[in-house]
Specification:
CATH class of the largest domain: Alpha Beta
Number of strands: 19
CATH architecture of the largest domain: Alpha-Beta Complex
Radius of gyration: 21 Å
Strand content: 15-25%
Number of helices: 9
Order of helices and strands: HEHEEEHEHEHHHEEEEEHHEEEEEEEE
Largest sheet: 6 strands, mixed
Number of domains: 2
């Protein structure tokens, strides 16, 4: 409860600054936004959806639809639990007449629950405010992040061990998934490969070539998502020039990811080598990462959010050739420290060959 109390205080402070009377945090297994509910309650959504209500004054409560009574380990919840046939009507009755900030208003909250709440209360978006309140990790959270990085890095080692040209993405990723599940990740994994600039699911009809860009993203038992991967094979001429830019980004990020720098500043620093070589950047350069995979702030143009110590970022410049035919994409999870950015995996930023191995940590 000490950790939860710290989180409650941070979110309530953000609510006061935003002028809202209560915060509703929406989480859904269907959309992959489970982590926000876990963050404020300790409960992991196995199926269906839930809301955490955190008033400025009074105790928090987690609200489930009645059909969710047996689709999760309810003993995990560290706050009061309520089961309602129509959660939106319950929210309206509890929060009517107030100004309510909702995390997940655009992507998570169901229409049937939004309608009665919006009819009874002033509802405003609260995504950025909530993400910023949880962006600075506690020491306990940093340890959870480091454990997730350990698991993800070993997953890359397993991918490299089983990869061979002509194998399918499914058979190689299956070995990674076996390890991830054994380590307690459950379903909190997202394993893909890139073909050109496009992300592909690791299906059995996806045959791996001589140059492979795996995308490995997992959350360990503590629930914190991380992303670690490196390219494998022999890059072409464009790939070698992109790799030079990756090496420059990796060096630049160690000084750019510092307290007081803005996300815009970091983006400019890490994108410089790619832009100067004439490459486009596709998927976001980087983003805050926590119990939800992609959180605010993103590392991007015009994002003036200032970084602080113990923020955690996934960085993955998505370098694409001008004609869109090729790309290079490698992931690393970074911790903002008082001295700058710390890459957490311990893997060198380079392209690996199919016949080498990664030393186990």
């Amino acid at each position: 409860m000490d950790e939860l109390s710290r989180r409650f205080a941070n979110v309530r402070a953000a609510a006061e600054r935003a002028g809202v009377d209560a915060v509703v945090v929406a989480g859904s297994e269907y959309s992959g936004f489970e982590g926000a509910v876990t963050y404020l309650s300790g409960f992991t959504i196995v199926h269906r959806y839930a809301y955490v209500v955190l008033p400025l004054d009074g105790d928090p409560v987690i609200v489930f639809p009645s059909e969710a009574r047996y689709v999760g380990e309810h003993g995990q919840a560290q706050i009061e639990q309520v089961f309602q046939p129509h959660p939106g009507e319950w929210l309206a009755g509890r929060l009517g007449g107030r100004r309510v900030g909702v995390y997940g208003l655009d992507y998570v909250m169901t229409v049937r629950d939004f309608q009665p709440l919006a009819a009874a209360a002033e509802v405003v978006p609260f995504d950025e405010e909530f993400d910023l309140a949880r962006a600075v990790k506690s020491d306990a959270e940093v340890e959870s992040v480091r454990d997730s990085v350990r698991i993800n890095t070993e997953g890359f080692r397993i991918f490299l061990e089983h990869y061979r040209p002509g194998a399918t993405a499914a058979e190689v990723m299956a070995e990674c998934e076996r390890y991830f599940v054994d380590e307690g990740c459950g379903r909190l994994t997202m394993d893909m490969v890139l073909a050109g600039p496009e992300f592909l699911l690791a299906r059995k009809d996806v045959v791996l070539g001589d140059f492979v860009l795996p995308s490995l993203e997992i959350a360990g038992p503590g629930g914190h998502w991380v992303e670690v991967s490196r390219a494998i094979g022999e890059p072409d001429e464009d790939g070698r020039r992109m790799l030079e830019a990756y090496e420059e980004y990796f060096e630049a990020a160690q000084s750019a990811l510092r307290p007081g720098a803005t996300a815009h500043d970091v983006h400019r620093a890490v994108a410089k080598g790619f832009v100067e070589r004439g490459y486009h950047l596709g998927h976001v350069t980087g983003h805050s990462i926590g119990m939800t995979m992609i959180e605010h702030p993103k590392i991007g143009e015009g994002v003036e959010t200032e970084l602080a110590e113990n923020m955690v970022f996934s960085m993955h410049p998505h370098a694409i050739t001008p004609d869109g035919s090729g790309c290079l994409y490698m992931q690393e999870t970074w911790l903002v420290t008082a001295d700058g950015g710390e890459p957490l995996s311990g893997l060198p930023m380079r392209v690996y060959t199919a016949d080498e191995s990664v030393t186990r940590s």
